[in-house]
Amino acid sequence: MITFLASVFVFGLMIFFHELGHFAVAKAVGVRVLEFSIGMGPRLFGLRRGATLYALRLLPVGGFVRMAGMEPGEDGQFPAATSDPGNFNNKTVLQRAAVIFAGSFMNFILAFLLFIYIYTIIGVPTYSNVIGDVLAGKPAQTAGIRPGDRIVAVDGKATANWAELIQEIHPRGGQELTLTVESQGAVRDVKVVPAVEPERNVGQIGITVDDKSVYHEKKGLFTSLKLGIANTVAITTMILQSIFQMITGAAPAEVGGPVMIVSEIGKAAQVGLMPLLMLASVLSINLGLLNLFPIPALDGSRLVFLGLEALRGRPIDPAKESMIHMIGFALLIGLMLLIAYKDVLKLLGGG
Predict the structure, then answer these.
(1) Where is the PDZ domain positioned along the sequence (predicted)?
(2) 130-158 pLDDT, tens digit each
(3) Using alpha carbons only, what angle is made at residue 111 by residues 347 and 238, rounded to the nearest 5 degrees?
(4) I need a labelling partner for 155 at 20 to 30 A (CA). Which of 31, 211, 286, 341 fits?
(5) Coil/strand/helix, residue 176
(6) Which residue segments constitute the domains of the chain, with CATH numbers given?
(7) What's the predicted TM-score (pTM) here?
């Protein structure tokens, strides 16, 4: 049940933001939006405001924004009456491209907002500066440091957590350090010379972190904004590099489908809200990138057709374009079913 609810939440959030991007820009450039729908299949709830029907549908997968002029009428022709300023096809190439691109753009915005929420509201799991164990014969034991001690400063520089402590010790192998140690309310200074660990060439004094000392460290808004941008850019770059490596054969082509994604969402939900939101951020970036690929039926292919229109000075035949998207959609569904089948085999231990 947790997996189902978490999956509906994650997919619903990604789809809502994606469709909201299309909707908001369409409204901004004057396109008449006929329906904003979350979910697919039979309509469960609908509310009409002006020309737009806002609907929630039965199946918690997918969603769509239906705009005037984007679907053929009963005669199979795409309406594009010049007298209708709200028709999508009567907008400039740039305006239509903005409407199409906005969906993927909002997926990146969602990831950015989720990172900010994680850093400012939930906080990042951080180990404190409490020592869990002292290794026998190492510099820390020789200096009289004991499990449960807290190293609060190195050479007078405060170390609020384990990461800051390691950051001060690692670069200074072979150099004498003054550690400010707090133990049962008493504070003392001890001298210690970190030994150089040959494999990584870092200084170590022979201590391990107390696994029970983890806490959630919340960041300020400005720091969270910077971290949100940095994470969004880093994950986007990592995904693009992985795709490039798979295309060139430098890495195995391992693609997870909806079944595997739902499985991972369930695992993250079992751990807690922060891992779930982290996964949602990564999936949202994936969705944004995937939709920009020039694959028929995806937003990227529509942008390609608009680019061709801009170069040719006239649009591609809408009926032919629609046929290409329909064929691409059918192939895409077939590919997803194949990937889902392989996902099930993996989960069942069949390869």
Answers:
(1) 122-161
(2) 999 989 888 989 888 899 999 999 998 99
(3) 65
(4) 211
(5) coil
(6) 2-123+220-347 (no CATH), 126-216 (2.30.42.10)
(7) 0.80
